[in-house]
Write a structure and sequence with these properties.
With 203 residues, the chain is of the alpha/beta class. Helices cover 45% and strands 12% of the residues. The chain folds into two domains: 3-148, Response regulator (Rossmann fold, 3-Layer(aba) Sandwich); 152-197.
Length: 203
């Protein structure tokens, strides 16, 4: 599938698939596969995924979910494990850019490290989904299909407040930092510090 044809087909497929996925979620997110028809004419789609590293439970669970939905929706998933290594991920995306895909999705290990191979994917008409860490800084437009990310700040603040309440608002808390190059680490760390600093008896 090439160029504009790929984008049109992906748009049609993703709209119907996400709608059905939402309906399945409302019905309870059961492990049983939803009644989702495969791609037109029984064709299966081909997608590539890259994340920071499968040594993280967050990334591993994400890939497991992707594979499950891929099986339900008729998408064959190829996973690139970056192993928390910027050079390894860059090599992976360079390889990805030499092949044909119906769409790709990636969690960059750091901003501005994957821009050039990602541009080549986009120039080939392959939809690129960016998630969690931005491929380029906010405000720069290189033609990405979309960007999605959880509310790291809100999640960190809620988790911190729950921990503080559970120990009666006083005592000691040990934090474990994410990799320094991960922007989400800065957001979460900021809200953890803000929440814990609001209580004088907490260290």
């Amino acid at each position: 599938m090439q160029g504009g044809e790929s984008r049109r087909a992906f748009c049609q497929w993703s709209s119907s698939s996400f709608a059905l996925g939402g309906r399945a979620s409302l019905l309870g997110c059961s492990a049983a596969p939803p009644a989702v028809a495969p791609a037109e004419g029984g064709k299966r789609y081909k997608a590539a995924f890259s994340n920071a590293g499968l040594q993280s439970t967050w990334c591993t669970h994400g890939i497991e979910t992707v594979k499950r939905w891929g099986n339900w929706l008729g998408v064959d998933i190829t996973v690139y494990d970056s192993q928390f290594n910027i050079d390894k991920q860059r090599q992976d995306i360079e390889d990805m850019a030499t092949k044909e895909w119906d769409f790709v999705a990636m969690q960059a290990y750091a901003i501005k490290t994957l821009e050039e191979p990602v541009k080549r994917l986009i120039e080939k008409g392959i939809p690129v989904i960016d998630f969690d860490t931005r491929i380029v800084p906010e405000g720069e437009d290189i033609g990405l299909w979309t960007f999605m990310s959880p509310d790291h700040e809100g999640l960190a603040e809620q988790a911190t407040e729950m921990m503080i309440q559970s120990i009666g608002g006083k005592g000691k808390i040990v934090t474990r930092k994410a990799p320094l190059r991960t922007p989400a680490r800065n957001f979460a760390r900021r809200d953890f510090t803000r929440s814990s600093a609001s209580i004088r008896k907490l260290k």
